[in-house]
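Sample intake sheet
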Amino acid sequence: MAEINNYKCSNCGGMLQFSSQKQMMVCTSCGSEFPVAMFDQAAAMSGEQQYQAKTDNWDVQGEGLVVYECKNCGGEVVGDETMASTKCPYCDNPIVISSKFAGSQKPDLVIPFKLDRKAAEQKLRNHVNSIKLAPAAFKSGNHIKELKGVYVPFWLFDAQCHASARYEAEIVHRSSDANFEYTETEYYDILREGDMVFANVPADASKQMDDKLMDSIEPYDVSAAVPYSSAYMAGYMANKYDVSPAECQVRADERMQQTAKDLLKKEVKGYNSVRETTGNFYKYNGYYKYALYPVWILNTVWNGNKYTFAMNGQTGKLVGDVPYSKGKFYGILFGILAVLWGVLIGILAATGHLATGGIIGTGVVALIVALIVAFSMKGKTVSVHKGTKASDFVVKGSFRLTNYFDNFLRKQVDKRPKQQNNN
């Protein structure tokens, strides 16, 4: 039995959907506004309006699809088995399949949308226009083919952690006299051990979503989360989880472990080089929560290719890889090379140090700088990355060292004859 919530305006009978700007249920016909809590109270007192799926046996739909009947217009709505909220393609009526979020599958919390469709479109334009190497034709000619607000399922992991690591470290001193150059190296054995607490480390629980895309729009402000209500789903798409907590926990644990290692290594100071030799990571008092996070998905088409962007529906952080113009790339590279090389040669000529070696040397310096700038600009065309750390989710003030030492091992002195200047 599929339970479908159909939110109607009590003033005119029009459709209600959640407004991210007003944080209220708003009638699309007369503009009447209603607090979300009103629908929670009504559901608790009288039971939510329920409708059956087109067939009681969902397994016979084939290809993992389910057919629902819209009670507003009678049209058939087809979706996969994880679909929990959508819109009728015929009458645009918001449909919330509340049974998908019932019982043990009910989310612990939801972060409502704070930004609307217009904000997502503007963020996309700003993002594309900020990429200097993006082709001019892409900036003006890419068209939004699909724009949808989606509540994406996430597992959030909390844990107290204890980590330890041993390091080999070196301190190097250099000196010289009239005949020799000396390198004195001190070797140390180092231990760092500490405790920390992680809260709400996210891992998206939808097979349909690109993990790297979801990682890249972090973090969300979980303090703004509210208890789940199906009213927040009205007007947006939503899917229930189809990736288990156990599967997602592997990713969350890897991120916590890497952050623990980083925190410990930051406490090893005053050395010229540090290399970790062994490490241990323990997690205890682990806990997970089921949450729905707001995401705007924008698909654009340009030159026959599809480009996908995602925007955090709460903070407005938008990511998405864009193409780059090879012409612009090489134009910037050789432009910087020519200008910088000319400036350096001019400085050498003015100071009387211009020579063949000087020309070649300044050319190498100019080329290195030009390559750094050009590749830095190219790097900005890629904003989607896998989340490998959980530094945003360390509870403030929770990290503390519990044990440490820096043991001196030995000293080694190397010397070599000074190179004689024959000039």
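Comment: The chain has a mean pLDDT of 85. The chain has three domains: 4-106, 117-319, 326-379.
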